[in-house]
């Protein structure tokens, strides 16, 4: 289980809990995560996916495997670089990429020597459009929309679920990281899917109900 290895790493990085305690906590937390009916995952500061539940797998199940941007491996890279990300993340650039770039910029500022984050920055620089969005468009966007639009927790974002019961809908991004998980440098996000709005039935005009079989029987027969 990925959480077991993560428990060892978090202990090695100075977490006050012993390795067995950290591992046991993460194992139990994985059980909790797997019981949630909405897509839910735990990530580190690089957006490496430490654990994700079956609902998360179902949401991205139709996405093709990718060597560096698979959603089960790193959500940041998936949002920014996977060619099929837009098939799930509707309005990808404005609703998903820009907020994720803002969080990436914050993480890189906090961890300027992190090799994985620096590698993401190099990948951004290799794409002229994305690099311009990061260097020039992102500051203007943050200034225009404010901190609330940048934050993941509470954001309402569009997506397309492969299950036709959901289809094109929205999700409320809920950040719910307990103190113990936070002390390990981990975060949890849940995508609370909203039921798609159904078309309202047309109101029946007064008298329309009488234009049924009784109306047809009122027509005199030939002869």
Overall tally of structural domains: 1
Our Rg estimate from Cα atoms comes to: 24 Å
What CATH calls the topology is Beta-Lactamase
Overall outline? globular
Number of contiguous helices: 10
Number of strands: 5
Helix and strand composition category: alpha+beta
Outline the structure in words.
With 223 residues, this protein is α+β, with helices and mostly antiparallel strands. It is built from 10 helices and 5 strands. It has a single domain (2-197), classed as Beta-Lactamase (2-Layer Sandwich). 46% of the residues lie in helices and 13% in strands. The longest helix is centred in the middle third of the chain and has 19 residues, at 92-110. Mean pLDDT is 85; it is low at 10-14 and 208-223.
Structure at a glance:
The chain is α+β, with helices and mostly antiparallel strands. The chain is built from ten helices and five strands, in the order ααββααααααββαβα. It is globular.
